């Protein structure tokens, strides 16, 4: 009897676990169907499900944008929370072309003009292949991604010949959603001519990082051999020096502290084409700190001219450290890294949803094109152009110099010893 009860108990536990897993898998489809049924029966619509409602009474001349996947784990997407038919930009201003509906209901799939997929929640290949059979003529599948190809949980090549458009930070995307960009200014050019940007800065170098990939960790460790670097975040454990206090990303205290530094190590986790993130735009420029980064082969076209220090302009960390020391002691030279403010202003918000709506309307007259080869567009071949040089030359050139000096000294001592032996033998 006891063994039977024990068996029954484990069967019950297994049933609960199986039910829970099943609910997780069918959750999204289930809540959509529940709402659909509630709508059909004219029941009260739950407010937390209102954004899931399928569209009705779509008027002519409007385009429909379906967000098929979550934005990371967020639904609805933070940039498109309502079923607007008058789209607005991040400042609440009406888009130049605003006649688009936003929907999250997959029941609207067949009538949608654009279907947007976020790379963090990409459906399985088999699911995407089954959707291709339902894709309507003229419908645009849109690849949305802001992580670089090396940070992808899958190979982009898997989804080749499925997507028509892209929304990314890449300058050759159909729609741009960059971490930041700059535009020319024509007024107030004299505003910064008398400002001393080094004033009030009593700390030298700051690095905020929690993703401690070997490349940039090695670079920071090499720099820290010659200059003091304050490190905050999970990467702090790799350094003997522990700065006082904490710096929680986005907090007011952290922002105030960042402004006390002269230089910020804006090193990306991977060096990929056009991949310049908030490390440069927000952590450095917004706090009026000079960014030290890897521009190299990929990023010079998207960086503000004269606003940064490229480590690849120096043969090694020792040479870079000498230059940073020079800037630390020379206000005039340091302030030159802010002269760009006379000609440009940086922007960290984008209107990609407005741009997508405009592109849909403009595309009415465009000729159909072949789907994109995502393996080429978003493959890892768009990264690592300078990595070999950094690892094999930049990080080692100074070490080779020290090794050569050591070998030279050893050779000299060895020669003295040999000479001594010869004298003794004589």
From TrEMBL:
Listed GO MF terms: fucosyltransferase activity
Record keywords, A-Z: Glycoprotein, Glycosyltransferase, Golgi apparatus, Membrane, Signal-anchor, Transferase, Transmembrane, Transmembrane helix
Keyword Lipoprotein: no
Gene3D superfamilies in the record: Glycosyl transferase family 10, C-terminal domain (3.40.50.11660)
Keyword Glycosyltransferase: yes
Predominant place of localization: Golgi
Pathway info: Protein modification; protein glycosylation
GO cellular component terms attached to this protein's record: Golgi cisterna membrane; Golgi membrane
Record Pfam families: Glyco_tran_10_N, Glyco_transf_10
Entry EC number(s): 2.4.1.-
Residue ranges annotated for the Fucosyltransferase N-terminal domain, each copy included: 63-180
Membrane topology: Single-pass type II membrane protein
Residue ranges constituting the Fucosyltransferase C-terminal domain according to the UniProt record: 199-366
Annotated TM spans: 7-27, 47-68, 405-424
Subcellular location(s) per record: Golgi apparatus membrane; Golgi apparatus, Golgi stack membrane
InterPro entries found in the cross-reference section: Glyco_tran_10_C, Glyco_tran_10_N, Glyco_trans_10, GT10-like_C_sf
Top enzyme class: transferase
Family of this protein: Belongs to the glycosyltransferase 10 family.
Protein name: Fucosyltransferase
Organism: Actinia tenebrosa (Australian red waratah sea anemone)
GN (gene name): LOC116302872
